[in-house]
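Listing S7. Sequence submitted for prediction.
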Amino acid sequence: MRSPRRLATDLRSADDRDLPSRTDLIGHALSNTIGGPVGRHALIGRSRFMTPLRVMFLISLVVLALGWTTKSPCLQTVGSGYPDQRVANWDHERAYFQLCYSDVVPLYSAELLEQGRFPYKSSWVEKDSSGKEQVRYDGMPAVRHMEYPVLTGLYQYAAMALAKTYTAITKVVAIPALTGVAEVVVFFDIVAVGLALAWLATVWSTAGLAGRRIWDATLVAASPLLIFQAFTNFDALATAFAGCGLLAWARRRPVAAGVLLGLGAAAKLYPVLLLLPLLLLGVRTGRLREVGRTVLATALSWLAVNLPILLLAPRGWSEFFRLNSRRGDDMDSLYNVVRSFTDWQGFDGDLGMWEPPTVLNSVVAALFALCCAGIGYLALTAPRRPRVGQLAFLVVAAFLLTNKVWSPQFSLWLVPLAVLALPHRRLLLAWMTVDALVWVPRMYYLYSVPGRSLPEQWFTATVLVRDLAVLALCALVVRQIYRPEQDLVRAYGWADDPAGGVFDGAPDAPPGWLPAWLRPRAAIAARMGTGDRTPARPL
């Protein structure tokens, strides 16, 4: 059969790209709703408009819009007067039974943003439910400051300034449709727009890090966790900086990677954890010079953001670190899960208000250090060098599992890393769904109306299932590190480490000072080969 038209002269095709409509059961099923799998003779990567990244942006915008919709019951304006005189309707614990809770709304008043105060310089005394000022365990007043890292605090301040500008305009120009919206609701919407853009940046960076498996980033764009957690707090800012930092590293720009990771650490500290995988792989490959440049750039960019606030308001700047040192085991932590099912009273027993749980803090630090030591041993001795995404996921997952706090929105940290580490779509979708659904019993456990709230064990049981799911993902990642022929990223020898940067394709060259028991098992690696073409099966 001859083509009715003359063939194109340019027949280039990205034939090495993974095509989910052919290779994945979920992708194949979904493709049937829009015309079926990609054709056998199609030229891949030649679409001028509907590129994979644009498709994923559209998917992400739909899911983010759904996420905003879940928060909308808490954005109903009540009261009269100008926007700064109105409030959002949170009466009768609406935030819990309608599942619309977000830290953004109460923080607007709690952090004195509604008064136009500059974060870190302003302070207040904590009060109880009756309005009485509280006293710390040492007899001092319970003075509070902005509790977030500098970049997140400044982001809130910028959103507040825009919300105040909106209020000022409505007082000059009478626009009934606008005047009826509370200032705090406008503040939330401004924050949400920025967080949505940050998540799109996370999708973009994950797509760039995925290499030939660009469609894996669809799970980041359509993660069920976005429905409840995208606008619960400000964590999307950190995921964007962390993802873009790893992408800069993958493109062999170590200084840019460090600057972005430093900015991420100035928003939430977790991006600094990503330096550990780079350091371990730098030792294994002998590429510590590039890693050193990234570490130095991270420190300098973090310092550049933090130093002005540190000098201007040292007490307010240090509140974030004080708060984390005095927090107990949070309701989402494994420690609280154990307490809820046993008679255990915790490591420190009963403590006064804001009294640091010193034993718990020591246990958390020791457990995380042990996990990092294990990950370090794995990274240095595995028969084949692990990928950056695999180690990054293990480090962040270990941090969350051993930490005394796992706020629901922290799970967003794992989403892009899990996609890069273990691109088995059905497994990841199952974990994300379980993790997202933890929000429902959490809200109804906090809902205090008798006969309508859930017992604590209903909530902690779902937390335990979530933690077991993350542990299972960690076990699979470790298994694939020791059996790289089962790693979908390295299947058929198409790629080594798309996110590896200078590590991609680099041979092992550990320094002479590294002891023999921390060196790669060369004999096993030689037997397995670094170009294993055994096909891996999707799970």
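Caption to Listing S7: primary sequence and predicted structure tokens for the chain studied. The chain has a mean pLDDT of 89. Residues 44 and 370 are 46 Å apart (CA to CA).
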